[in-house]
Amino acid sequence: MTRSRVEAVCLLLLAVSMAVTGWVSLGYGLWRDGLPGAGLYPAVIAFLCAACAGVEAVRTQKGYNSEAEAPAGADDEAPEWSVHGIVWSKLAIYAVSFVVLVLTFDFLGFFVSSGTATLIILLFAERVGIAKAAFVTAALLFASYAIFEILLGVHFPAPAIAQFWNP
Amino acid sequence: MLESLSGLWLGLSTILTTTNIGLCFIGAVLGMIIGVLPGLGPAATMSLLLPITFRLDLVGALILMSGVYYGAMYGGSITSILVRIPGEAASVVTCIDGYAMAKKGRAGAALGLSAIGSFIAGILATFGIAMVGPSVAELARQFGPPEYTSLVLAGLLLSTWISQMTPMRSLIMICIGLLLATVGLDPIWGSDRFTLGVPELFDGISMPVLAMGLFGLAEILLVAERLRAPNPLVASDLSLRKLFPNRAEWREGGPAIARGSVVGFFLGILPGSGAVLAAFASYVLEKRLSSTPERFGHGAPAGVAGPEAANNSATQSSFIPLLCLGIPSNVVMAIMMGALLIQGVTPGPRLMTEHPDLFWGVIASMLIGNVILIVLNLPLISVFVRMLKVPFAYLAPTIFMFCVVGAYSIRYNLFDVLFLVLAGFSGYGLKKLRLDPAPLVLAFVLGDILEKSMRQSLILGLGSPAIFIQRPYSAALLAVAALLLAIQLFGPLLAVWKKRRKNS
Amino acid sequence: MLGSVFARLAVLVLSATAFGISDVRAEFPERPVQIILPYDAGANVDLVTRGILNVLSKELGQPAVVVNQPGASTVLGAVAVKNARPDGYTIGMLVVTTLAVVPNTRSVPFTSADFDYICQVYEAPSAVIVAKDSPFKSFADMVAFARENPAKFLYGSPGPGSFNHISFAALLGMQNLKGTHAPLSGNPAVYQAMGRGELVANLDSAATVRNYDNVKALMVLSKERIKFLPDVPSSGELNINFESPVWGGFLAPKGLPTAVKAKLESACKAAVTSDEYARAMERFSTIPKYRTGSDFSAYVEAERARYRKITDELGLSPK
């Protein structure tokens, strides 16, 4: 599949999801007591967006090389647009660490879960030595505790798991 | 004129005590720290300081708190430039060209432009408040929902200019931004929209969290996908002379600072999110006025200097409605009002005559505070730039952790952390689809105001849209919007026509 | 930065020296008590809460600190209290909006069974407020105008379904008036619009008249006149049987240990009935009001039922 086709498919998906959003907005009511209802504005925007994304999908598929090419002067950004040279495993580990943090933040509390996420990145994505990784993680956790909890008074929530052993 | 100078003199003589200058220093430094940290804004810190102000005299309390507010504007740009994470909501725009400059090895120049821009804007705004404060306060009084609607419409028409994308792609991003802004409780009927029953979403999506994800986290992923992360600073010279903006950068940045200060001053007076709007407005203005608009988004100095000047200027001019009218224009000003009320002072038009030492003291303290901040900031530039030499392997988890804490600390909300990560993945996807998130964020900011004020206006106009053209400011702004629309629609047509005539 | 740290240290040292560290150690509280407040700093409720902190800290022997957690018309703050550990170290200052109004206008993720009521802290009358340069001299003037110009009678509120909205709609309903509700974005926007003459009136806590320079009160909604607005007639003397006070009190997550609850209750009672607190409230034009936990709980139920009736009549209750 060529790059322009991938883009066109994504834009098409966007168009469909926007159309669905517009459909949902219709349910919020378009007009009420002589005034615009809760759904009018989002419905208008969503359908407009769906139309634009649909048109753009067709245009991208047709004329990727001529018109929609990255503007001049963008060569410094070229690597970001190309698929070549992406290390998928590394990217995936980063993504996993983000997801791990989100899933465990409530249950394990900020310190354990963000420490785990940091360790995942350092050990598996960046291949840092265990000792170094542990040191950096500890330093980071201490720094965020010192800055946020002590200095700025941000209260981190107690981890949900804590209530099991200390009622 | 003479009056305001003697007022400033009175203010200066009131605050030139060790205690007050010390408080100004503490406030400014604390502001800079929270400015650097993503997420956490001046409001959270000022509410922490509120109990301390009970024990201070009123002038000192206000000096301390206002220092936090404008100090945050100095700090906010630093992370925007270095790692593309907006430290403050008002520094989102700086992520665009500031980070692009840093990637070219001009991080020091960008930091210098933003610090000096903030300083000049701060000084200009202070004199602005002193000279015309009370008279422009009337502008704030007249600015209601209809005026806001017209202003935002004009802004929305400008927002396609913020990006290098084709107008169609900009329009798609603008629509998504506007839609994201509708998440939450309906402003008129209170029914919920797109919240999926999550109470944390009733107040809508948090703008700093959205920006942190779309810009910052997405950038981490974009760098992380490469085997060896490129270090943008490897080539750059860290000598102090090279670190500062060069002559060409000054030539572009200087006028931008002047214009940004003025734009920021007026938008800051308006109630609401003045500083964010001011930064965006200045960016679009600079791009429009520039002879090389194609360089915006790729490290144009004016795209850093203008917005940074504008947000500092707006921060300071947002004191005008509180000090001159007794109306707090945002959460930060509401806290200041609380500090005044605690000590038995009702802010309002009489404040200037009944408590001149207080009124002028706060204004004069801004002069001192800005001087303190610039003296602190310039030497720190080389320190901050050196921080970029930290390998990406360590930088990435650091940025990530601070983003997570930052997102959480804004509303003490676990949901915001989830949304941060979602926005990060979306930002990465958008970049891969060659869609620029900048118009989305701008439209999100504007959309929040647009729908609310449009529907509120209709109620205030008793159901008739005539209210938008009956009120002078609103009508004038609508005319501007119509002009912008005409330029956008007919500009390309005119160009085509000219070309054809030339050819024939 | 230093200021904040110093202040915390100062509070710690002061409270430690004043009460002797050793003998308080064993019992509750051993560390500072957090008070979750569902409003931004600087809001009137925030000022009132801070007004009681000093006294409460002394009574508890440990500092009490405010944690501002606004959002979703105070619902998020209530949820935070509900989800906190019931050890007494996290309590909430919840108010009329949270406990009596919002549960009737939309579905909320908490019920009164989720809380242990500690005590009521304040109760202050609300007032009918108009612009200072408004032509109305009395409540009767306003009613007459509203009767003749029902479409033009715009009343403001900081948002749909808010305390101000529901209460004013109820008051108008009692006079067989309807008017048009204009929900704006927060209180400052309401008073700004009022200053421009866009809004005719609104209902808010009587203290507002002191906080904003450009408004006056037409009628205080209480049986008798209040001390800080001596010239404003009360609804009682105008034979209008309508009171809509703003109130608030301390609540804890359900399941407090008995000893902890007793300690919090006694500390709260001493603080609310103290002279220092009364003096502080005078500055914010609010009136201390003490009710025991169970009385407060009964009062909240009564208020909730009263608002339920209003929202049912107005058709604002959730489907």
Identify the overall geometry of chain A: flat
Instruction: Count every beta strand of chain B, where a strand is a DSSP E run of 2 or more residues.
Output: 2
Placed side by side, the strands forming the largest sheet of chain A appear as 1-2
| Average predicted local confidence, pLDDT of chain B | 88
Count of discrete domains of chain A:
2
How much helical structure, as a percent, in the residues of chain B?
over 70%
Beta percentage of chain B is under 5%
Instruction: Sketch the topology of chain A as an H/E string, one letter per element.
Output: HEEHHHH
Largest interface: A-B, 76 and 68 residues
Using only C-alpha atoms, the radius of gyration of chain A works out to 24 Å
Chain-averaged pLDDT of chain A? 82
- Work out the helicity level of chain A: 55-70%
Structural class of chain A: mainly alpha
Protein described:
The complex is a heterotrimer of chains A (167), B (504) and C (319). Chain A contains five helices and two strands. Chain A has helices at residues 3-26, 40-63, 78-81, 88-125, 130-151, and strands at 31-32, 35-36. The model of chain A is unreliable at 65-81 (pLDDT under 50). Chain B has 504 residues and is mainly α. Chain B contains 22 helices and two strands. A six-stranded mixed beta sheet of chain C has the order 2-1-3-10-4-11. Chain C has 319 residues and is of the alpha/beta class. Chain C has helices at residues 2-19, 21-24, 44-60, 75-83, 96-105, 139-148, 163-174, 187-195, 208-211, 258-272, 275-283, 293-314, and strands at residues 33-37, 64-68, 90-95, 115-124, 126-131, 154-157, 180-183, 202-205, 215-220, 246-253, 288-292. In chain C, helix 7 (163-174) links the parallel strand 6 (154-157) and strand 7 (180-183). Chain C has two domains: 26-124 and 245-314, D-Maltodextrin-Binding Protein, domain 2; 126-220, Periplasmic binding protein-like II (D-Maltodextrin-Binding Protein, domain 2, 3-Layer(aba) Sandwich). The longest helix of chain C has 22 residues, at 293-314. Chains in contact: A-B, A-C, B-C. The interface between A and B is large, with 76 and 68 residues.
